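Researcher: We are triaging several targets before committing to wet-lab work. For this one, the compound of interest is pyridoxal-5'-phosphate. I'm pasting the protein sequence and the ligand SMILES. What I need is the predicted three-dimensional arrangement of the protein with the ligand bound, expressed as structure tokens, so it can go straight into our comparison scripts without reformatting.
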Amino acid sequence: MLFHSTRGKDSDKTFEEVLMQGLAKDGGLFMPNHWPKIDIEELRHFDNFIDVAKHIVPLFTDSSFSKIEVENLLDKTWHDFDKKDLINIFEIDESISILELFHGPTSAFKDFGLQLAAAFFNKTLQTQNKTAVVFGATSGDTGSAAIDACKEFSLIKSFILIPEGNMSEIQRKQMTTVDKENVFPILANGTFDDCQDIVKKGFKERTFLKDNQYLLAVNSINWVRIIGQICYYFYVSLKINKLSEPLNFSVPTGNFGNVFACYAASKMGMPLSKIVVAVNSNNILDRFFKNNDYSKMQVNETISPSMDISVASNFERLLYDFYLNRDSDLCFNLYSEFPNKSIKINDDLWNKSSNLFMSYSSDDISTYKCMQFYYENFNYIMDPHTAVAADAVKSLRDKLSGKTVILSTAHPAKFPLALKNAGISINNTPKKLSEVLNKKETAKKLSTEDNSIFEYIKEKN
Ligand SMILES: *Cc1c(COP(=O)(O)O)cnc(C)c1O
């Protein structure tokens, strides 16, 4: 399986090249040259997550690694989960279930994608006898999942910029209290956008790198993260009905990686009814699915900070594959003027949306109400990101037929302030989260206005 860019000017790439490069040279996102098909009959024989992953991951990695190599890697990839099976399914009633994806070490679903990324990064570095610098900015859970996934691999040094702003204290401390020689959290005085500008500049100039060293991105456009997420869609479908009936999935959405993984699973043969794209008041996706208007606006701070985005990077993959039938010239043209000019596609193409997608935008007040509703009626405590997806289902329920799975992307204990404001008290905070609060923070404070961040990386590299 080889890969190519959505914008058509970077193609015939192996898995390893795509893994280490991240973004395509033309600014587009990498896509597999075709959708591999899963033999559903065969998958039905499996009953644990790793076996399912062993059936899926090698389909995308065969240009670089043998099946045996990948199977051996997968035996060790996902670690420190507090459920043997990695996930948990909580049944609300006969038609609604909650898929808990937060049982990994950082209590958010990003562990699934980033632990797989780190395992493949490390394998590649070992084979090529090289080292790497991971450099990224985070507005929530990406940074902690990246740090945790890479911290045991001595060939990788992680430098993560933590902006001033909206993330919870626990989210910040998960990054600043990791006491490891190859982990460098940086408290940057600037917004998330300032931090992203610095990261972009770093990737362009690369002044702090040594010879023969990779600079790796951990943002959600790396294809390997999508692979890790495809696995749990197949797995939950297997658990719920042996892949016999199409399910609906309601996904709390920011950069669209999680929704795209659901779409990808369906292209590979997973039965699927509808995807509910659930967003907070940062509603660019809701505006697209409702009005064919994909236009960038200012970011609002909400109580679901990991979904506070102005554009949804992975949406480009859906546009290219689903709407534009893989016409890369058209995709190139639409993105060459974006965000100055908003994206609006031909109505004939856009009308396809309703076959597969519904969307919903939930503001903070309605998110709080949804958290309270589930607490009072089902004694179930959910985090504010999950509540955005649950709120969408509450409102769209009459239009959904069959069973619906709400994806729960973070443990509620990560957001104690939101719980408090909703009047909910939690008594099962995982030890790993409560411990973090008492540990000493050791982050470097640096400015985004000069070169000090690059100088610091150079010094520590
Ligand atoms: C990252 C994140 C999301 C958004 O996921 P995308 O794949 O970017 O759409 C939702 N919830 C939580 C808790 C997250 O950390």
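Researcher: Any quick observations?
Model: The chain is about 45% helix and 15% strand.
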